[in-house]
Amino acid sequence: SGLLSRLQTSAPTIRTLSSSKPFSQNIPSCLWKLGRLNHVAIAVPDLQKAQSLYKDVLGAQVSETVALPEHGVYTVFVELGNTKLELLHPLGDKSPIASFLQKNKTGGMHHICIEVDDIKAAMTELKKKKIRILSEEPKIGAHGKPVIFLHPKDCHGVLVELEQA
């Protein structure tokens, strides 16, 4: 009646799913595939300080600043090997990042970007599934590829960017 025997008798029973079908067969087939995490975007109030943190303090490879007027942002990419961080800073007063930073003065995570193999098929299917897309057509993103954004209220509070792989 030691501690080990009490733990063994009070441990919950683990049940396994018994099914003749592999788990992946329960996932509906799509005309498009979700790919790898391309980047996590972080809104920053001071782009130079953020660049310096990742480059000078943490030793990461950091890109030059690129202006994307169509999206109202300046972007900088931090290479992490298996993915990237995208540092975002407002470009103009109507920038979505300016309004984000008004609510989050010190900055913070803005969105995640996941690659897809067919952005048009993804848009068609997501609309059928009542997922709101924040533009009628894809825009060209920071990597020169078509991108769309999915409404955060339809994605558990996360702004999701899909990028054509």
Automatic annotation (TrEMBL):
Methylmalonyl-CoA epimerase involved in propionyl-CoA metabolism. One of its GO terms (molecular function) is metal ion binding. This is Methylmalonyl-CoA epimerase, mitochondrial. The gene is Mcee. It catalyses: (R)-methylmalonyl-CoA = (S)-methylmalonyl-CoA. GO terms for biological process: L-methylmalonyl-CoA metabolic process. Pfam families: Glyoxalase_4. PROSITE patterns: VOC. The keyword Isomerase applies. The keyword Isomerase applies. Keywords: Cobalt, Isomerase, Metal-binding. Its EC number is 5.1.99.1. It comes from Oriolus oriolus. Residues 36-165 form the VOC domain. It is an enzyme of class 5 (isomerase). Belongs to the methylmalonyl-CoA epimerase family. It comes from the Eukaryota. GO terms for cellular component: mitochondrion.
